[in-house]
Amino acid sequence: MKVQILGSGCAKCKLLEKNAREAVAELALEAEVVKVSDIESIMAMGVMSTPALAIDGVVKSSGRVLSKDQITAFLVQ
Amino acid sequence: MWQETVDRLVDWIFSAKGGQSPDSALALALNFFIYDTVKIFILLIVIIFAISLLRSFFPPERTKGFLEKVPEFVGNILAALLGIVTPFCSCSAVPLFIGFIEAGVPLGVTFSFLVSAPMVNEVALVMLWGLFGWKIALLYIGSGLVVAIVSGAIIGRLHLEKWVEEYVYRIHSGEAVLETLTWKDRLKYASAAVGEIVGKVWAYVIVGIAIGGFMHGYAPADLLARYAGPAVWYAVPVAVLIGVPLYSNAAGVIPIVKVLMEKGMALGTSLAFMMAVTALSLPEAVILRKVLKPRLLALYFGIVAIGIMLTGYLFNAVL
């Protein structure tokens, strides 16, 4: 599984990344958390407001920092 | 009623200490400080919550959809209005700009949005309403919208698409995904926004109001009339120049502007100053440089700055 954090490195993106890593660690998932900061890739996924979170290329949320629990809910789906 | 409570509290503090009379400058400054801080914090919480709840219905993907479909000048008006309700953070100005342009929203319409979104923001609104009353708050919103509509319309007329970085037109964005939010999600989003924004501005609010309160109590009443009164023609451009580096500090700047006005700064000059603080910012320029060639960036700043100055002169002349 691949958890992608979309954003150009603002404070909110780092917070989202941290929450995502915690969620993954807590579920003991074999998932990789990667940052996508290149604008062309962000746009290609149809995201206009960062930070955004995608799981295996599917955007789950954009424009807000999800909490660890919210990310967990997406991960277990 | 609230004013009376504060009056009584300040009277009590001073009578308990003995000596100082409740009408002394220190008492006045303290009175002003307590009254305004509590009022502003209550307003900040209530209004940011309400606006953020409204914003959860207008993600940029939906706003883009509205703007694709309308003719250009209507687009400028709609874009300026949507700038108020669409969540905007200068950190995501680039994907937003590319998303609009790529979807076929005209350049001028995109600019109307980019001018209005940071200028007519919830913090400025609360500070203006709380400290100056609804009339000046409405005047600020109204003139902010006019500046956004007109600047965007002018940029649109000039057909400057060639001054946008070429790669912007090569990007193909994927289908926008709209999350389906439940009411619980929206309420959570709004509460998070309150926490985030209040967390960011509270110190500025307190420092701004404290400085304002101090000046209110101590500075002579006509201190600024000679330098920033309606008759001083250069006050408006100077105010705009000073306002640009004070980006995102509407929270700290507006309480000080209130006192500057009491001490004789003209209303138009004050409005121009506040608009320059919110609308023109160097960090945003740096971010937009990624999508705009330097000439377009300079023109954008120039047109908005002129628009703000004209607004200042207009209100100085008519009010």
Descriptive notes:
- The complex is a heterodimer of chains A (77) and B (319).
- With 77 residues, chain A is α+β, with helices and mostly antiparallel strands.
- Chain A has one domain (2-76): Glutaredoxin.
- Chain A contains three helices and four strands; from the N terminus they run βαβαββα.
- Chain A has helices spanning 11-27, 39-44, 68-76, and strands spanning 2-6, 32-36, 52-55, 58-62.
- A four-stranded mixed beta sheet of chain A has the order 2-1-3-4.
- In chain A, α1 (11-27) crosses α3.
- Chain A is globular and about 30 Å long.
- Chain B has 319 residues and is mostly helical.
- Chain B has one domain (22-172, 182-318).
- In chain B, 75% of the residues lie in helices and 0% in strands.
- In chain B, α3 packs antiparallel against α4 (72-85).
- The mean pLDDT of chain B is 88.
- The A-B interface holds A 7-8, 10, 12, 39-40, 42-50, 58-65 and B 59-61, 64, 87, 89, 91-92, 94-96, 98-99, 102, 167, 171-177, 179, 189, 192, 290.
Keywords:
heterodimer, A: 77 residues, alpha+beta, 3 helices, 42% helix, B: 319 residues, mainly alpha, globular
Summarize the structure.
Chain A has 77 residues and is of the alpha+beta class. Chain A has helices at 11-27, 39-44, 68-76; strands at residues 2-6, 32-36, 52-55, 58-62. Chain A has a single domain (2-76), classed as Glutaredoxin, CATH 3.40.30.
Indicate how many domains the architecture of chain B comprises: 1
CATH class of chain A, anyone? Answer: Alpha Beta
- Determine Rg of chain B (CA atoms, Å): 21 Å
The CATH homology group name of chain A: Glutaredoxin
Radius of gyration of chain A equals 11 Å
The CATH architecture of chain A would be 3-Layer(aba) Sandwich
Approximate strand percentage of chain A: 15-25%
Helix content of chain B: over 70%
| Low-confidence residue ranges of chain A | none
The number of helical runs of chain B is 16
Largest sheet of chain B: none
Label the overall shape of chain A.
globular
Number of helices of chain A: 3
Largest interface: A-B, 23 and 26 residues
Distance between the termini of chain A: 12 Å
Helix content percent band of chain A:
40-55%
Strand residue percentage of chain B: under 5%
List the helices and strands of chain B in order. Answer: HHHHHHHHHHHHHHHH
Which structural class matches the secondary elements of chain B? mainly alpha
Domain count of chain A, please report it.
1
How far apart lie the N and C ends of chain B? 31 Å
